[in-house]
Amino acid sequence: MTSTSIIDKLKRNKILDLLKEGKRIDGRELDEFRPLHIDTGVIPHADGSARVRLGDTEIVAGIKIQPDRPFPDMGDKGIFICTAEILPLAHPDVETGPPPPPVIELARVVDRGIRESGMIDLSQMVLEKDKSVIGLFADNVVTDHDGNLFDACSYASVAAIITSKIPKWEIKDDKPVLVEGELSDAPITTIPVSITMGRIDDFIIVDPNLDEWECLDARITITTNSDGNVVALQKGGSSGFTVDQLVKCSELSISGAGKIRDIIKQATKTNQ
Amino acid sequence: MGGRKTDLVLLDKNGIRCDGRKVDETRKVTIKAGVLKNASGSAYIEFGGNKILAGVFGPRDVHPKHMADPDTGILRVRYHMEPFSVGERKNPAPSRREIEISKVVKEALEPAVMLENFPRTATDVFLEILQADGGTRCAALSAASVALADAGIPMRDLVCGCAAGKAADTLILDVNNEEDQAGQADMPIGYMPNLGKITLLQLDGVLTPDEFKKCIELGVVGCKQVYEIQKKALHEKYFSNGGSS
Question: Quick check: A90 contacting B, CB < 8 Å?
Answer without folding.
Answer: yes
